[in-house]
Write a structure and sequence with these properties.
The complex is a heterodimer. Chain A is an all-alpha fold. Helix content of chain A is about 85%, strand content about 0%. In chain B, helix 1 (about 1-30) packs antiparallel against helix 3 (about 50-60), helix 4 packs antiparallel against helix 5 and helix 5 (about 95-110) packs antiparallel against helix 6 (about 110-140). Classes of the chains: A mainly alpha, B mainly alpha.
């Protein structure tokens, strides 16, 4: 009776720890993939890309090329 | 039937008195960190250690092996947080624990000491589960933080069952004594052990 209880608790404990660790690992992997996409989606909705700074880069390039054009 | 009842009750009261002694000693050591009136050492003042000693003497007169083994086990478990710290004996926490364990096995037998160690670990774990949110606020060291609350509770169940397996004869009386003591303390401190 006592042995059964001990074995049951050990099984519960090891299952819980294993499941928790597994869950944390999979959530970590998921977040590594999904967080940059989410960030990009949210920033694009606001008109710029947080990862590549797309509109700002274009603005800078156009500014530089404009200045060069004036010099020429 | 009557002698068996008397033995059961004497073990129970011995456990309650030992628990009072351990609680007073613990509160006395935690006095610097816990200045509230719910700390018994603060409430009793300088006499708390003396009351603790009287309580321990009464517990030992009722049942020597159980009370002494519970006290030694509490000492060993209390050292788990300070395994690397050095004490006035010039030994560190780990060395003191081993020394107390060897002395306990030599004087009281391995069965009694192992029973007490597992029983006290289980009490410590459930205490940490109950105290989880309060200890998180005041920065106390707590097993529920380190391991997680569910793991702590399952380990409590496991250590309690192991202590029951080690000494089936005295477990019911010791368990009932501990439940009576902790329920009283819980009622007195309104949810704070």
């Amino acid at each position: 009776m006592l042995w059964t209880g001990i074995i049951m608790v050990i099984a519960l404990l090891s299952g819980y720890i294993w499941g928790k660790r597994d869950g944390m690992l999979s959530v970590n992997q998921q977040s590594l993939v999904s967080v940059p996409l989410l960030l990009r989606q949210q920033s694009l909705e606001k008109g710029y890309c947080i990862l590549c700074h797309e509109p700002r880069k274009k603005r800078i390039i156009s500014k530089i090329s404009g200045q060069q054009g004036r010099r020429i | 039937m009557l002698p068996a009842m008397c033995e059961f009750i004497s073990i129970m009261f011995s456990v309650i008195l030992s628990a009072i002694a351990i609680k007073l000693a613990d509160d006395y050591l935690d006095q610097d960190m816990d200045k509230s009136e719910k700390n018994f050492a603060t409430a009793l003042g300088k006499g708390s250690m003396l009351y603790g000693m009287v309580s321990m003497a009464l517990a030992a007169s009722l049942n020597t092996p159980i009370s002494i083994s519970l006290f030694l086990a509490s000492y060993i478990i209390g050292m788990f947080h300070d395994l690397k710290s050095h004490f006035p004996s010039r030994l560190n926490g780990f060395q003191e624990s081993i020394l107390i364990f060897i002395v306990g096995v030599f004087l009281l037998g391995w069965k009694m000491i192992l029973f007490s160690i597992f029983f006290v670990i289980s009490i410590q774990l459930i205490d940490d589960c109950i105290d989880d949110s309060r200890d998180e606020l005041i920065g106390h060291r707590n097993w529920a933080h380190r391991l997680g609350r569910i793991e702590c509770f399952l380990l409590f169940l496991l250590t309690l069952l192991i202590s029951w397996l080690i000494n089936e004869e005295i477990f019911p009386a010791v368990f009932l004594g501990a439940v009576v003591f902790y329920s009283t303390i819980l009622y007195y401190q309104k949810g704070r052990l």
